[in-house]
Amino acid sequence: MREQVRIRLRRAWPDLQIVAEAENGFQALELFEAHTPDLAFLDIRMPGMSGLEVAREMAGRCHIVFVTAYDQHAIDAFKHGAIDYLLKPVEEERLAVTVARLREHLKKPPPPMDDLLESLTQRLKGDQKRAYLRWIKAQIGAHLRLIPTDEIVYFHAEDKYTRVFTAAAEALIKKPIKELTQELDPDKFWQIHRATIVNASEIAAVARDARERLLVSLKHRPDKLEVSRSYIHLFKQM
After folding, report:
1. CB under 8 Å, gap of 24 or more: what pairs does 109-114 form?
2. pLDDT tens-digit series, residues 143-195
3. pTM higher than 0.70, yes or no?
């Protein structure tokens, strides 16, 4: 994700000087004290110290953009006056809007953000207690079946429905992909395309075809799933 943000920032803001990148919250704070930057992009969830804890130390001394996978965090940050936010995966069009806003905000002193950080901290605690989906209610022929999410290989959007694939069967549900991304455990289920979510434990291999498309092969189904450009970063370390 850092690589994706860096590459797209260079395109959207060529004269921006990126002075450091951090792998965790502790390193982020150390680098901040060493470089005293004007601007920081902070993931809300980071190892060591969270992005919110780091932001609390930077507040009033640096402009901050939050990077998050959770819509509710982003919306809350925006309403409470944070500079801006970016949702994962970072889209080039959205980043261009953020850059335009940042150019204006950098003319002013950084805000203290005390109320914002407290609000986001409480929301984060609530999310950590949230239970992810364990069962999917699906129609298979004339029967309604409860499918454990652990048995699901992948989801694929089709018109107004989402098709659910297990190792041995297919089913339809009315829940859209966008809603599923908020209800499934993101560590277990990866969105690899705007229309596809795959069970990470079901991924057998990833390779490029003759057309240079990145395709996922599965352990228990013959299907090959295309990975769109916005989600290629998920497989950088594989």
Report:
1. 109/60, 110/58, 110/59, 110/60, 110/61, 110/62, 110/63, 110/64, 111/59, 111/60, 111/81, 111/82, 111/83, 112/59, 112/60, 113/55, 113/59, 113/60, 113/64, 113/80, 113/81, 113/82, 114/59
2. 778 899 999 999 999 888 999 999 999 999 988 998 898 889 888 899 999 99
3. no
Give the CA angle between residues 199, 204, 209 to the nearest 5°. 105
Q: What H or E segment, with its residue span, contains residue 227?
A: strand 224-227
| Domains of the chain in sequence order | 2-129 (3.40.50.2300), 135-235 (2.40.50.1020)
Q: Which 3-state string (H, E, C) describes 138-199?
A: EEECCEEEEEEHHHEEEEEEECCEEEEEECCCEEEECCCHHHHHHHCCCCCEEEEECCEEEE
Contact between 116 and 29 (Cβ < 8 Å): no
> Taking residues 131-154, what's their average pLDDT?
85
Closest CA to 64 of 85, 47, 94: 85
Residue 181 φ then ψ, to 5°: -60, -25
Instruction: Output the six-digit token pair for 172.
Output: 């339809």
